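$ run holo --ligand "zinc ion" --emit tokens
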Amino acid sequence: MRKRINALAEQLLDTLEQKGYRSTEPRRAMAQVIANQDKHFTAEDLRKQLPSLGRATIFRSLKLLVETGMVCRVLLEDGDLHYQLSHRGHHHHLLCVECGSSQDLLGCDIEDLLQQTSARHGFELSGHWLEVYGRCNACRNVEQTVELANA
Ligand SMILES: [Zn+2]
Ligand SMILES: [Zn+2]
Ligand SMILES: [Zn+2]
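-- output --
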């Protein structure tokens, strides 16, 4: 009998199947673990939670999920590569360097600019990847409160 998995994991597997990727046991296990992450995660986090899967299997499945648009890569400011669930098309991330939170930044306005700049170099643009670092609203509010308390 198949192990029960949650709705989000089921949705990941359905999307994979629609794209022609069978729902194998390792993929089911991974979809379940990924669906349960509440923050961005590393391949190593998955490996710890799925000790029965090999490193190569985890990386292959992650790559597949990224290629099919269900998971996106998140590059932290210190160079660590994380992953998170993605429910949208092209987007960027606002990454807080204090609490590590990530918000999706929808609406990409830089495509035209990049087209023009690339053309000037005789370069044919095929895509871009951009992360935005800073401090989120919650972290800024905490700091303002501390400043006021010390004033
Ligand atoms: Zn994303
Ligand atoms: Zn923050
Ligand atoms: Zn963009």
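-- notes --
The chain has a mean pLDDT of 91.
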